[in-house]
Known about the structure:
Layout: E1 2-6, H1 16-20, E2 25-30, H2 43-55, E3 59-64, H3 70-74, H4 79-95, E4 100-103, E5 115-119, E6 125-129, H5 131-135, H6 139-148, H7 163-173, H8 178-199, E7 202-205, H9 224-232, E8 239-244, H10 245-249, H11 256-265, E9 271-274, E10 276-279, E11 285-288, H12 299-308, E12 314-317, H13 335-353
Helix pairs in contact: 4-8, 6-7, 11-12, 12-13
Amino acid sequence: xxxxxxxxxxxxxxxxxxxxxxxxxxxxxxxxxxxxxxxxxxxxxxxxxxxxxxxxxxxxxxxxxxxxxxxxxxxxxxxxxxxxxxxxxxxxxxxxxxxxxxxxxxxxxxxxxxxxxxxxxxxxxxxxxxxxxxxxxxxxxxxxxxxxxxxxxxxxxxxxxxxxxxxxxxxxxxxxxxxxxxxxxxxxxxxxxxxxxxxxxxxxxxxxxxxxxxxxxxxxxxxxxxxxxxxxxxxxxxxxxxxxxxxxxxxxxxxxxxxxxxxxxxxxxxxxxxxxxxxxxxxxxxxxxxxxxxxxxxxxxxxxxxxxxxxxxxxxxxxxxxxxxxxxxxxxxxxxxxxxxxxxxxxxxxxxxx
Length: 354
């Protein structure tokens, strides 16, 4: 197992020097944020980021993520051009020593929270999800807000200038069935998996976050059965799952430890995002400190299921709370994620010594 921390090359409040001081952390999961989806990441651009990481004494073996262009997800004729660009980027990353790519195939939006700074009883702040708030967000309300030029419609953490394009994309998907969407996924996987085999890069699809319907968009990976369906689209061992315990754990029906064990045993989990959540109803939750006692997930059981079934990939502590007055992007401050890394390393050592 290798412990990594997500790091944003541009505009991150957390420095590589700080990450290097977290015990047990060997590298970062990073990406090239300034390159639009669908464009090629050049060798020089990749090298520039890798050099910064290596100079700080860290590895850059994990990329999170190479965004999949929306035309690929929609299955439009232009998809082949964007897939070729994606493949070129894959080969360039492989030359730079990248071994794992986390990505998602969620249409339009890859995450949603109703509150980015919910105050908790201990004085910390955490991202939270309210299903009632989510149900009030409709395509009609988004379109009406765009037409009127008002600011009545908002999504926490999303820039208002993106809503017009998002509204058009969401409208497109109202006429796309789940089966049609999975056909588009298969087309993409069948194109890139031979290259992943050639380059030695493991791909881990990130689950839907949260796993509940929003804007009537197709759901991709949100439970054991949908994970199985996704991985069966292409049987390459390079076609894997990024096990995100918080995303899957948001649905109380998901046995996250069992999911971890099943797919780790098949060698289909190259990357794990470990975090805990606390439910306030069957659908509502807020993110919590990583300890099992702070949320609803048994972190020990999840770690044990991974180790018992041969997991030997990358792990990172996922979203942290805002604690100790830190100013950072929501979920990605230094302090709580460093605490999470220490806790996860302790669990890993305890399980391994048993």
